[in-house]
Specification:
The chain is mainly α. It contains 15 helices and two strands. Helix content is 74%, strand content 1%. It is globular. The two termini are 34 Å apart. Mean pLDDT is 78; it is low at 350-372.
């Protein structure tokens, strides 16, 4: 039998960094050409929450939450080692290693180039980014590494549940250690707005639609129809953010590269750690590869929205989270390539279903077919 053709991303995911770069240009152009519009948008907020950004982030996150089947958590005890590796890296290593790297670069090595105030804000943005493990994009990376789609779903679902209670305390603790004042109530609002509400809405509407129309229609028709809405919301959010960031970007283009340095180190460190621990625990490759990718990537939609709520649209913290979006795709593709080349490091065949083509929805993400 001839080897299967290499799996590829859909056009949007493949060129996400290009779209982000174009949004930078568009946003800077809007901010320069129409400052009155930007100022009007900045005044549309309630209790430090930007209403335009909130609506757009809901439109991005809601389709992600629709994909999560929490019933799959019932099977997690059968193969716990992969889950334990991911949870250890995501919640006991990743935020703290990012805080350490942020201190090293933003408060130490780069302090003379960026200044103390921006150093604090870049550090805050990096910590917020690291405290939000990836959700939807993990299904794309799992697909490219022939990951077990059902197990990946369990990993994502469990991370989302933990985020409900762990995200805010970890951010408050690490920013407090870094001597950065954080209004805890604003952070709680962010968790409610950008996790609790979309998660609840997604779970309820998923159950209702599956019951009314069935899994085939839900995965084959409904979810693909939401793809343009989610993409448009993401791009519109980035344009608005960069409209507010335009002055900073034009004045300090070097800062984009400086912010990227610790973020890149963090990605490769956590991916290597999760992958190495999975190998030591003799976890199958179809579970180890998605676990490494979950440990490396971020829920950047939540991170961007939280940074905006805490520090404002034009802040250095928001800029740091957006740089995370800019580097996400090329870096994660390189991690996928390493995982695919080192498949022979892991024991035994992939779990059933991991190597078979699975149904993918219009966004390139997998539908497990395990509806209950």
């Amino acid at each position: 039998m001839s080897p299967a053709a290499p799996r590829r991303l859909a056009a949007f995911e493949r060129y996400l960094s290009l779209w982000v770069a174009l949004c930078i240009l568009a946003g800077v152009g809007v901010g320069t050409a129409a400052p009155a519009v930007v100022q009007a948008l900045s005044r549309l907020e309630v209790r430090h929450v930007s209403l335009p950004i909130a609506v757009l982030v809901w439109l991005m996150i809601y389709p992600m939450m629709l994909r999560i089947d929490f019933a799959a958590l019932r099977d997690v005890g059968r193969r716990p080692r992969g889950i334990l590796v991911v949870l250890f890296v995501n919640w006991f290593v990743k935020p703290f290693s990012m805080a350490a790297l942020g201190w090293l670069f933003f408060k130490g090595l780069f302090a003379g180039l960026i200044g103390a105030e921006l150093g604090d804000q870049y550090l805050a943005g990096a910590i917020i980014l690291a405290a939000a493990p990836c959700t939807a994009m993990v299904f794309v990376w799992s697909y490219l590494t022939d990951g077990d789609p059902a197990y990946t779903l369990v990993q994502v679902a469990l991370n989302d549940l933990i985020m409900l209670v762990a995200f805010a305390p970890i951010v408050v603790f690490l920013l407090g250690v870094s001597s950065i004042t954080v209004p805890f109530d604003v952070l709680v609002y962010s968790v409610v707005l950008y996790i609790v509400i979309p998660l609840g809405a997604g779970a309820l509407s998923r159950a209702a639609l599956l019951r009314a129309r069935g899994a085939a229609w839900f995965h084959g028709v409904f979810l693909p129809r939401l793809k343009p809405v989610s993409i448009a919301a993401l791009l519109a959010t980035l344009v608005i953010i960069f409209a507010f960031q335009g002055e900073v970007i034009l004045a300090r283009p070097l800062h984009i590269a400086l912010i990227a340095v610790p973020l890149l180190i963090q990605v490769y460190f956590n991916a290597s750690l999760a992958y190495g621990l999975a190998r030591a625990a003799r976890v199958p490759h179809a579970i180890a590869a998605p676990g490494a990718l979950i440990g490396a990537s971020n829920f950047f939609e939540l991170a961007v929205a939280t940074a905006i709520s805490l520090f404002g649209l034009g802040s250095g913290a928001t800029l740091a989270t957006v740089v995370g979006v800019l580097v996400e795709v090329p870096v994660m593709l390189s991690v996928c390539a390493v995982c695919n080349r080192t498949r022979h490091w892991f024991p035994g065949p992939a779990p059933a279903g991991a190597g078979r083509p699975a149904a993918a929805d219009g966004a390139g993400r997998l539908a497990t077919g395990r509806e209950r």
